[in-house]
Amino acid sequence: MITSDKDFFEQLDGAETRKYFETAKQYFADNYGDENIRYAVVHMDEKTPHMHMGIVPFDDDKKLSAKRTFNREALQHIQEELPQYLKENGFDVQRGNKNKERKNLSVPEYKAMREELKKIETEKQETQVKLADTKNSLMKSNHGIPRKLLVNPP
Question: Is the pLDDT assigned to residue 97 strictly greater than 60?
Answer without folding.
Answer: yes
